[in-house]
Write a structure and sequence with these properties.
Blueprint: H1 8-12, H2 20-27, E1 55-60, H3 64-74, E2 80-87, H4 90-102, E3 112-114, H5 118-122, E4 129-132, H6 139-148, E5 152-155, H7 163-179, E6 183-185, H8 193-203, E7 210-219, H9 233-239, H10 245-248, H11 251-254, H12 257-267, E8 273-279, E9 291-299, E10 302-310, E11 317-324, E12 327-329, E13 334-336, E14 342-345, H13 364-377, H14 385-404, E15 408-409, H15 410-415
Parallel strand pairs: 1-2, 1-4, 2-3, 4-5, 5-6, 7-10
Antiparallel strand pairs: 7-11, 8-9, 8-15, 9-10, 11-12, 12-13, 13-14
Helix pairs in contact: 2-7, 6-7, 7-14, 12-14
GO molecular function: nucleotide binding
Protein name: Tat (Twin-arginine translocation) pathway signal sequence
InterPro entries: Gfo/Idh/MocA-like_OxRdtase_N, Gfo/Idh/MocA_oxidrdct_glycsds, GFO_IDH_MocA-like_dom, NAD(P)-bd_dom_sf, TAT_signal, TAT_signal_bac_arc
Length: 445
């Protein structure tokens, strides 16, 4: 396991037949060009969710992001309660409980579960909402189980790590719509006031016709775990999940999906194909790349360049830029004339003597949960998982292009049955090898 080896079987996993709903869901996603028409379904931007029926939530995945998401949910309004926890590892569950106890949040021992089947036990608890924050590989499985159990869902990004999982999420999204459930996803920029207002203006023609875009997330290597002697193969990989593609999808998907999602959002469609490259020069564990450079072709001469890098000691930066015939924008809060002068800028309320707009800055991590609670209590369900699945597949397409060195098309991704990961989930040895992907090799997708 410490050697970075991977067999084709390990990399591709097992193929399986997918339901028609999965294929139809992605094939039906709009591919029309930007028409300068503001028809986006904007989320309600309350500073606090309206009062209403008390909502009981359970958390699946008790790491730092899961614990943070649970606290964000509790901060969204009144009458919100966290009543159950589930994680594969008992020590992670206890660590989460200790953090929550410091915030005066108590949970019953009877509602705290560990092990691979912990999510099933949590779904038997009297809950209204389930928060999904495990390593991304498990997202499709847990999402499907939560919707089948009739629960509203907050699910972290990305939706999946492979095409198989994306199709599963799309099919489950259709079930959520049929059941009238709400699903909010962790693409928090779509719940952020400045991004939303900037999008509104761009969609109304503030920069003219969109001609190109770029997105980037350049940062240090986030973290890794040194293997303990008593850890099995499976335990080591899951505790070190962001260094293995089958668990995280590689950082081009796991983190850069935020930027990719913004570009898809502002352009109003997904790309038609991707070409790119990447490599590995500093990582010591896992099977992932250090860096990616991918060009997405949106058709009609419009393209977006994506950069993603996780290497210590380098310049760090992240953001998006969309350029049009009459200017460009950073997507977040500013629109520029072609010469670089500011045409428009969003401003939050100032509390230090500056000009006040009366708009309070609410954390987007809380704002998305305000949207979740509002949709439930107002009986106005919304399902965001389908669009996150589209952005997830976009990132997978870019990752695959870099891994293989080939031009990868959207249609190929729709038809792909690629499934990453082992066949069974149990703490013990894993019959998989993990070499770093080599561009130019023929790899079935």
């Amino acid at each position: 396991m410490e050697n970075n080896r991977i067999s084709r079987r390990g990399f591709l996993g097992k193929s399986a037949l997918l339901g028609a709903a999965g294929f139809a869901g992605l094939s039906a996603v709009s591919s029309c060009s930007n028409s300068n028409k503001v028809d986006y379904q904007f989320p309600p931007l309350h500073e606090k969710a309206p009062d209403g029926k008390p909502l009981r939530a359970g958390l699946i995945g008790c790491g730092n992001r899961g614990t943070g998401a649970a606290l964000n949910f509790l901060s969204a309004g009144n009458g919100l309660e966290l009543v159950s926890l589930a994680d594969i590892f008992e020590d992670k569950l206890l660590e989460c409980r200790n953090k929550l106890q410091k915030q005066h949040i108590q949970l019953s021992d009877n509602n705290c579960f560990s092990g691979f089947d912990a999510f099933k036990k949590l779904l038997e608890v009297d809950l209204d909402v389930v928060i999904l924050a495990t390593p991304p590989h498990f997202r499709p499985l847990h999402f499907e189980a939560a919707i089948e159990a009739g629960k509203h869902v907050f699910m972290e990004k990305p939706a999946a790590v492979d095409s198989f999982g994306v199709h599963q999420v799309i099919a489950t999204s259709e079930k959520a719509v049929e059941k009238g459930l709400t699903v909010i996803t962790g693409t928090q920029r779509r719940h952020q006031r400045d991004y939303l207002e900037t999008y509104r203006k761009v969609a109304a023609g503030a920069i003219g016709e969109i001609t190109s875009a770029k997105a980037w997330w350049l940062r240090p290597h986030s973290w890794f775990r040194t293997r303990h002697e008593n850890w099995s193969d499976m335990e080591y990989m899951i505790r070190n999940w962001n260094n293995f593609c089958w668990l995280s999808g590689d950082h081009f998907l796991d983190t850069h999906i935020h930027n990719i999602d913004v570009v898809n959002w502002f352009l109003g469609r997904h790309p038609e194909s991707a070409m790119g490259f990447g490599g590995r020069v500093r990582r010591m564990t896992g099977d992932q790349y250090d860096f990616f450079s991918v060009d997405f072709d949106f058709g009609n001469g419009v393209s977006s360049h994506s950069m993603s890098r996780e290497i210590d000691g380098c310049t760090n930066s992240l953001g998006e830029q969309v350029t049009g015939t009459e200017g460009y924008t950073n997507c977040k809060n500013t629109i520029y004339y072609p010469d670089g002068t500011i045409k428009w800028q969003y401003q939050y309320s100032e509390n230090n003597g500056g000009t006040s707009t009366g708009v309070v800055k609410v954390s987007p991590y809380v704002q998305e949960h305000i949207h979740l609670v509002t949709a439930i209590r107002m009986n106005e369900p919304i399902v965001e998982s389908r669009r996150m699945a589209e952005s997830t597949l976009t990132a997978i397409m870019g990752r695959t292009a870099a891994y293989t060195g080939q031009k990868i098309t959207w249609e190929e991704m729709i038809q792909s049955n690629e499934r990453l990961g082992p066949d069974n989930y149990e703490l013990g040895p894993v019959e998989m090898d993990f070499p770093v992907p080599v561009p130019g090799e023929k790899i079935k997708i």
